[in-house]
Amino acid sequence: SSIWFCVFCFWFCRVRRARSWVVGRHGHMWIRARSEAVLGACVLSGDPPAAALVGVETVGNVAGSAINWVLGRAFIGFQGRRWFSVSPAKIAKAKAHYGQYGRWSLLLSWLPVIGDPITVVAGALGERFLPFILIVSLAKAGRYIFLAFATLIWL
Assuming Cys at both sites, which of 35, 41, 44, 123 could form a disulfide with 69, CB separation 3.0 to 4.6 Å? Predict the structure, then answer.
């Protein structure tokens, strides 16, 4: 069933933080794609419904961000160790940036290059988990809702 294929692709792309390999129609052609491309293809196919696809994609991506938050919390605990490669000056700089923009900077967590570091910094700097999850969920759901609508409108 195509729903299980899409669920697997989203899980593989987001929770495992890897690129997916999507099988072509004939089963022998492999196409390397990101989960956004898989989302678009599945939305265009109409099976499963776009809302279910957006939900699966959002949950998987937010789960990855939650792991980043936990890693950030654990990461900061190693400060002061000899092998800890982040200097106190860099931590102070990150605190200053995060302090300036605060938790609302998590609205940028959907961005490909800076999104993951923002979620790690939020965990390292002690952002509470509930506001973190709510803001990150809003940002990431907005991204996939936009992508699904854009796919349906423009393609």
Answer: 123
Claim: this prediction has a pTM higher than 0.85: no
Give the C-alpha separation, 38 to 13, whole Å. 9
User: Which SS3 state, helix, strand or coil, does residue 118 take?
Assistant: helix
**Measured distance CA(118)–CA(19) in Å, rounded:** 21
Q: What is the DSSP string of 66-93?
A: HHHHHHHHHHHTTTTSTT--S-HHHHHH
User: CA-CA distance, 35 to 14, in Å (whole number)?
Assistant: 7
DSSP code string of 15-81: IS---EEEE-TTSS-EEEE-HHHHHHHHHHHT-S-HHHHHHHHHHHHHHHHHHHHHHHHHHHTTTTS
